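Weekly sync, protein design subgroup
Attendees: M.S., D.O., the rotation student, P.L. (late)

Item 1: inverse folding check
M.S. brought a backbone from last month's batch and wanted to see whether the design step gives back something sensible before we order anything. D.O. pointed out we never logged the input encoding, so this time it goes straight into the notes. Structure tokens as presented (176 positions):
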């Protein structure tokens, strides 16, 4: 009987510990608005974005949203012939995160795939929600900078920049 009780206790504690590292519980999210974009960005004009930072998996993910050319068709109707750009998801490993001046938190994610004909992408996220200094724009709690550099294979090397502002990072799942 003691063996059965110990086995159940160990099994129960294993389940409890596994749920505490659920990556979705440690994902910070916010919606972003574009403030600046390179005019020659190859994917088109970005309308908005969604940011998620996962501190367990150590990833920074940005979902870029593009304007829809055609409204979604109603049931039974045919869609228009215009082509709308699909959302583009950029996910990079988090290299660092830490507190900088005034108590703001800086997250940096980066992926360099230029050696295999890919692009270099760096996402810098500045979270002002923990800042101890007065902010000039209190509703711009999150600043995001995306730098993308092409590989230069078959085309000249190009660099693109996107800047975003957003609300406070939160781990609430109903925000997106």
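Designed sequence read out in the meeting:
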């Amino acid at each position: 009987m003691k063996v059965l009780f110990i086995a159940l206790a160990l099994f129960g504690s294993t389940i409890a510990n596994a749920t505490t590292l659920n990556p979705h519980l440690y994902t910070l999210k916010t919606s972003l608005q574009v403030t600046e974009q390179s005019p020659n960005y190859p994917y088109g004009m970005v309308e908005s974005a969604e940011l998620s930072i996962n501190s367990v998996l150590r990833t920074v993910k940005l979902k870029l949203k593009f304007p829809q050319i055609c409204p979604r068709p109603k049931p039974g109707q045919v869609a228009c012939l215009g082509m709308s750009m699909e959302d583009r998801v950029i996910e990079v490993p988090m290299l660092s995160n830490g507190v900088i001046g005034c108590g703001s938190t800086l997250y940096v994610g980066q992926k360099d795939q230029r050696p295999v004909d890919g692009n270099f992408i760096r996402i810098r996220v500045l979270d002002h929600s923990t800042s101890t200094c007065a902010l000039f724009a209190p509703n711009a709690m999150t600043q995001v900078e995306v730098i993308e550099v092409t590989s230069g294979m078959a085309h000249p090397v190009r660099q693109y920049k996107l800047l975003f502002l957003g609300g406070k990072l939160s781990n609430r799942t109903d925000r997106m």
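Discussion: The chain has a mean pLDDT of 82. Helices lie at 2-20.
Action: P.L. to compare against the previous round before Friday.
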